[in-house]
Amino acid sequence: MANSAIRSGVAFKTFAFLILVCTLDLFSGHIHYTIPEELELGAVVGNIAHDLGMNVPQLSARKLRLTSEAGGQYMKVNLDNGILSIRERIDREHVCGQTSVCTIPFEIILENPLALHRGEVEILDINDNSPTFRDSTIALQMSEAFAPGVRFRLDSAEDPDIGINTIAAYTIGSNEQFNLKTQRTEDGILIAELLLEKPLDRELQSSFRMTLTATDGGIPQRSGTAQILITVVDINDNPPVFDHEIYRGRIRENTLPGTLVMKVKAIDLDEGLNAELTYSFSKLSSARAHELFNLDPHTGEIRTAGELDFEEANSYSLDIQAVDHGLPAIIGHSKVLIAIIDANDNAPEIKLSSTTSNVPENAPPGTLITLINVIDRDSGENGRFRCEMPKNTPFRLRTSSKNYYEVITSGSLDRELVPEYEIPFVAWDLGSPSLSTNKTIQIVITDVNDNAPRFSETSYNVYVMENKAPGTSIFAVTATDPDLDQNSYVSYSFLENPIQDLPASNYLSINSLNGTIYALHSFDYENLKSFQIHVQARDAGVPPLSSSATLNVIILDQNDNPPVIISPSRQKGPAAMEILPQSVGQGYLITKIIAMDADSGQNARLSYHLQRSTDPSLFTLGQNSGELRTARPILESDTTSQTVVILVKDNGQPSLSSTLTIHITALENITERTTESSNFVANPEYFSDLNLYLIVIFGCTSVLFLVIIILLIGIKCKQDRKIIEEYNSPSCCYRVGDSRDTFHSRLAMEETLRYPGSGRVVSVPEAHRYSVCLSPESAKSDFLFLKPCAVPTSQANR
Predict the structure, then answer these.
(1) pTM confidence score
(2) What is the pLDDT of residues 628-680, one digit of tens each?
(3) Rounded CA gap, 416 and 450, in Å?
(4) What per-residue confidence (pLDDT) applies to 669?
């Protein structure tokens, strides 16, 4: 006996060891392991890394994890070695009940790239449960009238194990009166019946006691016992008999409680109380069946008592007994099999691999976003389903494997247009009526550096007053970048653009953070009127993107130069000398003051004023022309030597001015004047012969050049007469004053200050206006070309 036990133990250990090897079966893309139940914590199930063909370091790098609830509860993966081990003791009977094949499914998700592997662990049953009887004593009453061959159904033992580990045999102690017969029902339950071998004689023996032993087929073998107590009575010798040995019925799940399932009926050939029957469930019926069904003890009607669920169990087996009222009572048995018809009461279930998915906006079409697992616990058409996503999004569904779908990109993405998508995912089954489930998939578009900074303008005009203090801010440029974070951080700089052969950085500096431009020194309009620079805006993305804008910097004139008097020249000392005949009349031109101003515009527009005179009534000065004339004839009583002080000032704010002192001498006759003039010129203190020759040559050359220009202008005026008429303006105008003022005619014009990029018109008084025409070449140059224009006689005489 001991040797047999040892051999049994060795055989079991060998069997367990072979099972622990965990054979890996690959079928339909599954990883399959097989282990026995009740393994200790930490026991090895298999090597995930080896079975997936991966290196161990890849497990952590790709964030391997188990996703199923059952798999994660009972097993775990060691990312350091890829071993799948037991996390919690597995009781097969608790996990799977009486199902023939017990598996625990699991899913393995890997990232970078995202991948899904499915597997399952099959739990093998071990003989860890002994057969047990609900009652320790089975009481039977037998009539002495029973003939040999009568069978009495005994209460069956229960063993939660399956296969060979469940109940394999019943035995009773050896006796001459009874024997034991066993048989299996359609649902595989082994039933023990006590067979009467010899007639009973109450007078010889009124009761029997024996032990009923139930043994399973496991290794080692386990058993359970119950006591059979038989009481021998007289009379009632016919048991109830049902009209069907097995009743079969069907009913839909979710049927309301109280619904009639079927009606059973038994007949007893006895009479009176021995033929009156009471129906009830036998102890073979499960406790759950007792909760879900009611059996009317008088009519035999079976009705629902609770809510049926096809997903919990698709059928129920009820053992019905009919007990007569005889003494002793006789019991008849029948089997009722109730099939549950599935109803569409489960909507599809949607499980997302992640609640929020991030995808870069430059992701190509076909990029995997997330995995969706859809299941429906119903069966048949009720368990089939369809899935759908909106078609007006850059995403679509792709079937991955059974019940798994992949959300992939189907078009281009642009975070600046749509930064986030909330896509409704709908799954509906094919039942009637159809049930559906909605799930919102949130997809966040992450930024990439695909937008260069943009200036509000491609070109800016910047006006800077000359003489501004160094370090003064003159302008600020701003560029915007619709990207995010560092892709939108903009820095500013100057591009290579020399100004007067020097780098732009010698003149200006720019704040790289906010685009403010500062002058490094003050500008001088007289030296630099305008220049152009290029500003670049560059983001901090990888790779960086940039754009540029042009800045036209225009220097505005400031009245910082006083007028300079160039004629008449001062021969010696601070004053100029002029000689005139004493016989001159009113309006005689004594001299013309010519001055120039380095400024421009109003700052260079000069006016002449007689500031002081020995005799104020003797002289007049043209305010605009600078011509000094006699206001009246010179009288004999007038002093022959006169002194006048001329003030020349510009039109700037504030105005700047210069003065000139002229000493005027009046001679009695022209001879004296000529002699004095000759002496004056011959005097080496005032002039040299070489200077005189140079002046004569220069004057002749100037006259010749002026004649040539006048001839060319006349020819050009005739050739362009038709072109000028198209502008609806006179082609030539010419206006003169008095004949004695031909050389010193009063000239004034409407002039336009030609600052680059801007203009301003200054009107000259009507009394000193010439009529002139702008040449077409003026529009092509910064110079103003004037052409004399012909004016009607009425206008010329005005």
Answers:
(1) 0.47
(2) 999 898 888 888 888 999 999 988 888 889 888 888 888 876 544 433 333 33
(3) 10
(4) 60
Q: Tell me if 299 is assigned to some domain.
A: yes
Domain co-membership, 582 together with 679: yes
Count of the separate structural domains present in the chain: 7
Query: 35 with 66, same domain?
Result: yes
In a domain, 434, yes or no: no
- Report if residue 697 sits inside a domain: no
pLDDT for 295 equals: 93
Residue corresponding to tokens 């002229």: 662
Q: Note whether 85 and 152 are same-domain residues.
A: no
pLDDT at residue 638, rounded to an integer: 84
CATH code for the domain of 20: 2.60.40.60
How far from 542 is each of 42, 416, 448, 538, CA to CA, in Å? Answer: 48, 18, 9, 11
Residue closest to 76 by CA, chosen among 122, 41, 32, 52: 41
φ/ψ region of 112 (left if φ > 0, alpha if ψ in -120 to 50, else beta) reads left
For residue 277 the two structure tokens come to 């029957």
- Select from 477, 559, 578, 574 the least CA-distant residue to 518: 477
CA 257 and chain centroid, separation: 54
Find the domain containing 666 and state its range.
564-687
Burial of 324 (0-12, 13-18, 19+ CB in 10 A): buried
List the beta bridge partners of residue 213: 171, 225
| Contact call for residues 758 and 554 (beta carbons, < 8 A) | yes
597 and 665 in a common domain = yes
Same domain, 674 and 583: yes
Give the pLDDT of residue 286. Answer: 83
pLDDT number for residue 570: 73
- In this prediction, the residues of the chain whose per-residue pLDDT falls under 70 are 1-29, 70-72, 234, 355, 571-573, 669-691, 719-798
Same domain, 568 and 523: no
Which tens digits make up the pLDDT trace of 686-698? Answer: 444 556 777 888 8
pLDDT of residue 644: 92
Residue 778 CA, chain-centre distance (Å), reads 56
| Residue 697 exposure: Cα atoms within 13 Å on the Cβ side | 6
Q: How many CA atoms lie within 13 A of 533 on its CB side?
A: 26
Domain final residue pick, 216, 233, 250: 233
Q: Are residues 210 and 296 both part of a single domain?
A: no
